[in-house]
Amino acid sequence: MKAITWIAVSILAAACALLYPALVKPSQINLAIPEQIHCSVDDKDAAVERFAGLLRFKTVSSPDNTSHLRDESAAENLQKYLRKSYAIIDSKLDRTQVARYSLLLKWPGSDASLRPAVFISHTDVVDVGDESAWSHPPFSGANADGYIWGRGAQDVKVTVAQMLEAVTLLSKEGFKPRRTAYLAFGHDEEVGGALGARAIAKLLHSQGVVPEVILDEGGVLLTDGIKGVTDVPCAVVAVAEKGYVSLELTITGRGGHSSMPSVGKPNVLTQLAKVLHMFHANPPPIKVVDPVPQTFTALSAGARNPLLRWFLSHATQQPWNWLLGRVLAASPSAEVAALVRTTAAVTDVKTGPPGDNVLPDTAIVTFNFRTLPGQDPGWPAKYLRRLCIWARLEPSAFTVREKGRDAASDVTDVLGPHFEAVKAALLETLTPAEGLIVAPNLLSGRTDSGNYEQYFPSTPTLRFTPLPASHAASAGIGDWPQAKLEGARPQSNRSWKMLAQFEVASGIIVTALQQRKDCAP
């Protein structure tokens, strides 16, 4: 397959060489940025300190507790801190506590005929793991070396601060929204959001609220572009996210004592080995679905290589669409390869009964699938059963049980007004000299927006976090100390500074509410 892919790439290169005179020239690429319309942070030190204060609350979520929180008092104290630090919560916004630890804020608009915009974030964080691996204590909110340090600095207390700072700034400047805005902060996103985001969505639905658009965390600012494609800064906005299916495969057979194994006859472990070999050798098929072609069509504007630019600009057309799938699937980056197939991974293996001298009679394996938009949620179970048959397991020797599922989201139209509104806000707010590309993207993980989709299907949903990331920072936790990845720069001469993130948030809010206002620089 790799040989075929490279042959196809060679043919593509030859064809593009023949077509070179017709290729789009760099001068035709419009990377200009409109005039800024966002509000600026007036007291920068205070804004940074308010954000740092959010990180000092140990709001670690846990599925083992009925509240989905390890320390309920930390969540209660964070709520008090928000009201004390952001006076607008009680002065201009309607506040509703949901499930005790989640927060729904309503900024009433002047035109009740306009459907509201819903802005989502969450206040919980994942566990810190080994604290010795952190450069600074994970709940210190330390301001050091040009960073704010702490769990939640990136995922995702930063967007709580962004939204509240933005609303405060806009209100001070006299901005009065025509469209109502909801700020919805869940408390258990990291463990599925069942008590937080889902409860908020249910409440809104019961009140007859029908959102015009939902905005959540997701894509980021890639400050040095995308390696191998473009060095132009990119704002990647997720317009869809993959689904989630968890399956449990149970293989049974005759056990025994290790001193008397059945020679030449398969046992549970050898059967399991065959299934895992089949699993490794037969991954889910490559499939290119929206918005992946549109991602690379958008990125084509910044490609310096004219052949690559031409190829990417035709990514929505055949046969280039087919070839794009093969090229991405062969990428050494797992994140890139995951764009073009439903992914599958073994996440847990258990055998029993235990004992060094015991031949187990049962093996239980957990498989996790992340399904592409449009994928039949029942397909993973069919796929796994087929692998077992190919491994020559008797049908009576195995069972496949679904432990949980979440369907992939709908795909928000990248040519529609909602994506264009966020795109305009980003272009108007960020001003790197190199220009800026705003590209749609498919998110492999799950966010709280999935809980809203249950109640508001087909509502345009966009996922973006105004955070800077580079090739190095996006390489993965294994390449950097964990705390390093949780830093957000509070100061810089570039527009990628943390304070500009508050300004980006204000720009997005203004644009999403469809009322623009020039604010003091």
Structure description:
The chain is of the alpha/beta class and 521 residues long. The protein folds into 2 domains: 44-220 and 414-512, Zn peptidases (Aminopeptidase), CATH 3.40.630; 241-406, Alpha-Beta Plaits (2-Layer Sandwich), CATH 3.30.70.360. It has 16 helices and 16 strands. The protein has helices at 2-18, 44-54, 72-85, 88-91, 157-172, 197-206, 268-281, 292-299, 306-313, 320-329, 334-337, 379-390, 417-429, 449-453, 482-485, 498-512; strands at 94-98, 102-107, 117-122, 142-144, 147-149, 181-186, 213-222, 234-241, 244-252, 256-257, 343-352, 358-359, 362-370, 398-406, 437-443, 461-469. Strands 1, 2, 3, 6, 7, 8, 15 and 16 form an 8-stranded mixed β-sheet that branches. A hairpin with a 3-residue loop joins strand 1 and strand 2 (102-107). It comes from Symbiochloris irregularis. Residues 239-377 form the Peptidase M20 dimerisation domain. This is Peptidase M20 dimerisation domain-containing protein. Pfam families: M20_dimer (PF07687), Peptidase_M20 (PF01546).
